[in-house]
Records
---
Amino acid sequence: MKIGMNRLSLFIVLFTISILSITGMDAYALFDVTSVGEIEDDSDKLLDGVLGTAIYTVGDSTYVVAASENEHGIEIIDISDPTSPTSVGSLADGGSRELDGPVELDIATIGGTLYAVVAAYNDDGIDVIDISDPTNPTSVGNLAISLGLAQDGPYDVAITTIGGSTYAVVTGYSADGIEIIDISTPSSPAEVGQLKDSGTGYKCLAASHRCLDGPVDVEIATIGSSTYAVVAGSLDNGIEIIDISDPTSPSSTGRITDRDDSARELEGANGVAITTIGGSTYAVVTGTLDDGISIIDISTPSSPVYVSELEDGTDTGVCTAANGERCLDGPRDVEIEKINGLTYAFVVSYVDDALTIIDITDVSNPTIVASMYNSSTKELDSAKGVSIFTIGVSTYAVVGSSTDDGIEIIQVMARQI
């Protein structure tokens, strides 16, 4: 029996509405990504070799704090108008602060005051900076970290609150471990616990070995009633999950690497982001040397499960996103954002000089929905850091460029279907 065109059209519309109603998804599939603003280094700014970025708000204004590896300090930029970012404050090492070679940072509110905690790779320490007045960032405390080696190489910082106290979890790239620092009194940060790598050599040679060789990124996850640090071990090619519920006695809980399956996208594990989808907790990990990302179910921290991956493929040369190319060569940082009920991973790749947005709502089938690659007019060369913020109904990505010495602001607009 033939169905008339009007009836057929009505049937398709009703069927589509029914599917969206059942899944809870909005009718969005792809994104339009547009470069809307940028700011680069000059004699008045500390933006040479931007690595980490972090975003915060004061009143109605939004700011990004950028860490300058080469100029040994931080720059604070007002991004309230994304089309016209403006530098408003900066703070340099000056020889007395722990800001020589800053890599990553995190932001916390302690006692009503906003602070940036910066990991300084060359100084082997952290600096705690009051950023409540963006025009006048002030160092209030610092700490040289002692993980047992002369060069600890602090790399990343993640901040959490446990039992009413505020702690910074810091990765020591050269020391092969993490340090937990009580920053509840910002002027007097104090080391309270640490956990180091075990075994000999790289690649977690035994299942019981901790995978903390060359730790880079660290993120915090609350699962059940416990708090965990999820650490990317770049030289061990995997992640280590550490129970930090008792900050004075962190304990290794679980791990997953490419030791048992070299096809996993975990070689050179670098960036980590945590999200919850459908009641389960997942880690999205960038494999810098494998040119891809992995999605890992960490809902049971002692037994993480490798779920899926997405790799760059056989693309070579400079990514142009033409002919279906994937811009995932040398992925470094990853952040996760939920937009219109769906979950997306924002990945920056320093070889492809690109930002790639991946729909991970169906964790078993990650799908690229948009990419932006470098050009002579964008600050995306050797992209290494990404942060996400929202103003009104618009979502933006701030990408830090270590070679272009600046940041790029990219607007992400869902394309309705």
Note: Residues 1-5, 7-28 have pLDDT under 50 and may be disordered.
---
Amino acid sequence: MFSWIAEPKPFGRGLELLGKPLNDGRFSGLFTYGSGRPVDDARVFGDPNQDGSDYNDRLPGYGRNAFLRPDYATTDARLKRSLYLGSRLKLKLVGECFNLFNRDNQRVTIADDGFQNGTGQFIQLDNRIGFKYFPASYQKPTNFLKATNAYAPRQIQFAMRMIF
């Protein structure tokens, strides 16, 4: 994260006539970047190890937090200007822009139980030889960890405040 504030006063001594309307502005910005966060989605729904729980089994070869979600980056900017309309009256104008460059920050939606897409579905086949089961099969979905949503696009807002 990186933030900055600038209050330029381009017209100083000798140029008070230009300085009155053009000074007293403030520019600020915020840049945020985050790499993709790990997600514990190498889970298998079903009960391949037959321990009575459908939510604690993983695909073979994948540990905890084996996958990453998409990264996130955004730039916000703000312009504030004060206008003096007399000795006791001041008008403040503000313009703000969120996600200035309109970056598509994709998001993987998480469900109530913590998962939207499972890595694989465990399908238990009822094939027996005596009292032993044949191994079941895993099916990997085509939409695994595919972004299904996005964070907010560019948003611009304006405000005006009068101080008296």
Note: DSSP finds one helix and 15 strands in the chain.
---
Amino acid sequence: MLGLGIQLASRDARVAQLHRQLQSIDGEAAIVAAAGDVRRLAFELLEDGESAARLTRAIADLNDALTARVLALAAQHHRLDDIRMCWLALGSEGRQEQTVHTDQDNAIVFVGGEAERARLLVFADSANRLLDRCGYRWCPGDIMARNPQWCLSLEEWQACFSDWIDSGKPQALLHGAIFFDFRGLWGDLGLARALREWLSAYIAPRPLFLRQMSQNLLQARPGANGWGRFQLQAVDGQPPDFDIKTAGAGQFSDVARILALSRGIPITATAARLSAWPAQAHEGDLAESWVEAFHMLQWFRLRRQLERHAAGRPLDNRIDPSRLSRFERRLLRAAFAELRGARHKLAVDYGLAF
């Protein structure tokens, strides 16, 4: 027991030491090198048997520190002191659930007009490019702060969100799954809080949009069906498998987002959203089981990334159940059974076919 305590303390000390180093690094070459240290430490922690919950939180904290330092370094070359602005983390970064296989999803909220936007876009472009050099891949959909579409004033974000919520168009539902997980990361964090408070107040009494989000989720196929049979798909000539992010952990995040928005819960992390959601005793039992299942799916996802890294192959989230032990397959089936229960909860709440 003493040995375990020393081991845990050692892990925490390594994370804390790197966190302190990130806060004082100067120069782009040094920050790019430090980003490599973050990834190496993440893989070392995973190899040491760190839990999915602790590991994703450690990665999130280090990514936050690194991103904040990148933004501070980029800001040194741009005059921003007279602009109220906040860098928003979106998607998995907004939920503090990034793994070592991730790309950029970010935006800016500010106070001002076109002159301020023009200056912020130049700053954002340099920051996005430096983050890309650090290993946070260029977003294929260009959901980045450098895109004028996602560098908006507080009033513009409110108008944008209200349009999505009121229209319920397919693209609005897709955007909501990314943007509604926003979190202020650097700058005037009060702007992010103001936007979150506005969103919570606006969306909770508009259940139609949440119903449409639920319907969209229920159309996605989970990794196992109601009989516990894995739902596999052959991709690019490879043996049949499934993506544990889109068919598992990501669907728990979707459920948690809808439940949190329906009750005006301002937090963004999936496990924290599920834990904060219960309003009745029986909901507490459900939430606890769903949190455990979500962490289990995240663990399988992280282990897959470790295996690919050790083999020197590109990271992905593909799981082939035939390569798992009988016990591991039972764990996966149990996690997917909990996901099925969470999906069923939304179907009942919003009167949807299940």
Note: Strands lie at 85-89, 106-110, 151-153, 183-187, 242-243, 318-319.
---
Amino acid sequence: MLAGVVRRCGVTDPSAGGIHITAYGSPGGRWSRGNLTYNVNVNGSGLSQADVDGVMVNAFQQWRVAAPFFSFMQVGGNADIQIQFGGMELDNGFGQAGGVAGVGYYPESPSQGRLFFNAHEGWTTASLLSVALHEIGHVLGLSHSTSRLALMYPYDMHLVALDVETIRAINGLYGWRPQIPFDDRGSTEGPSLAVAPTVSLVGGNNDQLYMAWRGVDGDDAIYWSSLGGDTWSPQKLIPGIGSLHGPALATGFSSIPVTGLFMAWDGVPGDDAIYFAQNPDPRFSDWTDQKRVDGVGTSGRPALALFNNNMHMVWKGAPGDSAIYWSWFDRNTWVPQQPIRGRGTSDSPALAVLGNRLYMFWKGIEDDNNVYYAWIDNQPGAIWQAQHVVAYTDARTEGNVSVNIGTSHGPAAAVRGNAIVLAWKGVPGDTGLYFASLENDEWSGQINVAGVGSSTGPGLATLNGRLYMVWKGIPGDTGLYYSWLE
């Protein structure tokens, strides 16, 4: 036990990973339903029934507000969550005061719903509230944090309210809306998303989300659609163009009060060239005629991002070439392509802009399922920084370890607030979709988006605070789906 530490949590984190404030994930488990009951046995607490009940009502109410997926009701007898006070008969760490104060068991396990407190502690309502909040976090699926300022830090539990990052963690685990299928469109590849901001002349904005994708097997055409409110417009064919892997879509150049869209794609089967087009005002305009990017080729979908007032593009090389190249468009011409030293991929990369940096994310070559990232700043003479593997910290009372994420396809990236959100399909054999955040140069742990799956990487974008994700179905399912996280 650390010197000077009063209370600690007895929960042992699972080996799959950990939850970390500024680096959070969902390795502990997840409830498949949100209407939960709890029962309180106050024997051994040293407090009255009314005091303990009041603490638990407070604690569960805070978690309910943070995660509206849940409702909690106190009952007598059998309940989803059983709360008890005791000694070593409940947990081996409960033999004395000043050690393990509480234990909460993760959901979807034989012990799910058990929440135990050490009867040897001299409980007050304040100390019980802080430990209860922490242990309920485990009962709902969260594991430990690396931050001493966070509710889920395993030592010296003292907070009596949920902090911002803990709220973000629980919302990431339970906040995704159930998937919604599109009934009029399909694809053999994952779609792309981008926002076209529009500033109203009378104030405010009317930003709009757009999606672009290629057709199903045998249909190399490219289609697009827009989201108005909670309804997507009917799909619309972009005439005269086609792609093997589908297009990349990005916010385009600004023409006040409208910012248009920019699109790039590889050619149809047998054509490794890269093409691009623009739409200056997608509310009313059509796409410009396609143009070819001279002297380049790819075997995947390129990636686009508007950075430093220029449209930047990165892509994997032509078939047989796993190198990553980049260029930028100065509104007239693309500068000659440049290989990025020491980088390689077997799929499509992703780009995102945060602050004064352009970030790139990519899967490794062939059987390397790691995801890597690097960035370049906006200063004259800037060069790409060294690559890093996307890895998060697994926090345990015994020490921290680093855990790599993995994928079989290229990831997607979007900026949300002060963080970059990365989304990806799992490793070969895992059709699940996952996401994590990069903030202050630290990665969150991966969170699985419950109940969804794909055979390719998803598309990702943020609009008015919502994080939207679109994806193709699992192998054999060419349908397209979407969801969002508030």
Note: The domain at 8-174 is CATH 3.40.390.10 (Collagenase (Catalytic Domain)).
